[in-house]
Design a protein that fits this description.
Elements lengths: L3 H9 L1 H13 L8 H13 L3 E3 L9 E7 L3 E7 L28 H22 L3 E8 L7 H7 L8 E8 L2 E3 L4 E12 L15 H15 L8 E8 L10 E10 L2 H22 L2 E8 L8 H13 L7 H11 L17 E2 L8 E4 L2 H5 L4 E7 L10 H7 L2 H23 L1 H16 L9
Parallel strand pairs: 3-4, 3-5, 5-13, 6-11, 7-12
Antiparallel strand pairs: 1-2, 2-4, 6-13, 7-9, 7-10, 8-9
Helix pairs in contact: 1-4, 1-12, 2-4, 2-12, 3-4, 4-12, 6-7, 8-12, 12-13
């Protein structure tokens, strides 16, 4: 029962999945519009012998690919949506492919493809050894708007999982011992009365004034929230013209904190500020909840196993050309000029202790509250590169990104294999940790 056959399969077939990731990178599509990527992955999985369930919960680009039967049931999570305005060529200078077009600044062209690569590699091993168990790849849309997995969760598709595995392109190789924050995405729509701003301003009630009063109130709230809380907003509707008192105005908020409970407390206060702003200005306000994922629950038994399998996978080795690309890209970063020990980290780390949540959010948090979830990161961009930047988009479309993707695929496939052949011991520990972290709380979809 050698793992070398999985590692060899990943190595021998890497060009197929490099091409898949490259094709998705070349054709970036936004949340809930990822028809090219989802179709490409479904076709590959169907050809490999997986059964496909399409349009999960009515979402065109959400799907599940399944192989095998019986327990354990192991899920691997994939994503494939791009970000607006991050079109970029795979070069170390800023240059758009399409003006103001989308781009894979979070590496989801890599993230989902590694999952497809992992489950097909594992399927080959299951056939060779007649292994019992069920493996699933979840094609999850719209992670960038933090709601795709929540809608899938509402359909119950994660409920029978024994565990889930996932990863994310980053600038280092590590197990995710930190939690990501819970976050609510919500819009506040104000309605007033239009009027001529010069001839009869007294007749109008400015919806935009209410938005601005609300933002002032929220900015004063910043002093009275826990450390690590983040509140960001943008005005998406501010009226039609300066000489018309705005009848409508909308402000879009992201509220983040270390736990869903803490976000709920902050949200109540922000809603009160919105009501007060409408009252002050004699307008009306309605809220529109867009997403509300949980914080992630890092599962140390699974993370440690994924870490060990990263060590067993083929190590990252970079060419001189890739090193030069990284050096040129690094000169464009805010950290340019600061000493960096390892610009393209090949080393692998794991620090299994409870740490503060990291300043980011993802709908994978919902899955981590339904089943034990392990997560790793791999080097797909030079140290110092920020996600959601043109530099990240550039790197995720190069061999640097693809090498990190293959390491992630190998690590997930090897970990899933361990779970299939040693299911009772490892999964029992993972479930104990999962239950400790949930502390009796039950998952309820936030939208």
């Amino acid at each position: 029962m050698s793992k070398e056959t999985i590692i060899d399969w990943i190595e021998n077939n890497k060009h197929t999945y490099t091409a898949m990731a490259q094709n998705i990178w070349d054709k970036p599509q936004l949340a809930y519009q990822e028809k090219y990527a989802s179709s490409l992955q479904m076709n590959a999985l169907k050809q490999a012998g997986f059964s496909i369930k399409e349009k999960v919960n009515g979402i065109d680009t959400a799907f599940i690919a399944e192989y095998g039967q019986g327990a354990p049931v192991i899920g691997i999570l994939g994503e494939f949506d791009a970000l607006p305005g991050l079109s970029q060529k795979p070069i170390p200078e800023k240059e758009e492919v399409t003006k103001n077009g989308p781009g894979h600044g979070c590496g989801h062209n890599l993230l989902g493809t590694a999952g497809v690569q992992a489950v097909i590699a594992l399927k080959e091993k299951m056939d060779a050894e007649s292994l019992q168990g069920t493996i699933r790849y979840y094609g999850c849309p719209a992670e960038e708007v933090l709601s795709g997995k929540t809608y899938m969760a509402k359909a119950g598709v994660f409920d029978d999982l024994d565990c889930a595995l996932t990863w994310h392109p980053m600038t280092s190789n590590a197990a995710m011992y930190k939690s990501m924050q819970s976050m609510v995405s919500i819009k506040f729509h104000f309605k007033g009365k239009p009027a001529h701003a010069a001839a009869s301003p007294e007749s109008g009630r400015s919806a935009l004034d209410s938005v601005e009063i609300m933002n002032i109130g929220v900015n004063y709230l910043r002093e009275h929230v826990p450390d690590g809380t983040r509140m960001h907003y943008t005005i998406t509707d501010g009226g039609q013209a300066p000489n018309i008192v705005p009848e409508t105005a909308t402000v879009w908020y992201f509220l983040r904190a270390s736990s869903k409970e803490e976000v709920e407390k902050i949200l109540l206060r922000v809603k009160d500020i919105a009501k007060g702003s409408a009252l002050i200005n004699d307008t009306e306000v309605e809220s529109e909840l867009l997403a509300f994922p949980y914080e992630t629950l890092p599962n140390n038994p699974l993370n440690e196993l994924m870490y060990l399998n990263m060590l067993k996978s083929n190590p990252l080795v970079y060419t001189e050309e890739e090193q030069r690309f990284a050096e040129k890209l690094a000169k464009t970063l805010p950290s340019a000029g600061k000493p960096v020990e390892e610009l393209l980290p090949a080393s692998i780390s794991y620090k299994p202790y409870k740490a503060a949540s990291m300043p980011g959010s993802s709908d994978v948090g919902d899955v981590s509250w339904i089943a034990p979830m392990g997560m790793i990161t791999t080097t797909c961009a030079p140290k110092g590169t920020a996600l959601h930047s043109w530099q990240a988009t550039a790197s995720f479309g190069t061999e640097i990104g693809y090498k990190g993707m293959h390491l992630a695929a190998s690590s997930m496939a090897l970990t899933a294999y361990d779970l299939l052949i040693n299911k009772d011991n490892i999964l029992e520990k993972a479930k104990e940790t999962f239950n400790e972290l949930r502390d009796g709380k039950v998952y309820e979809a936030g939208i």
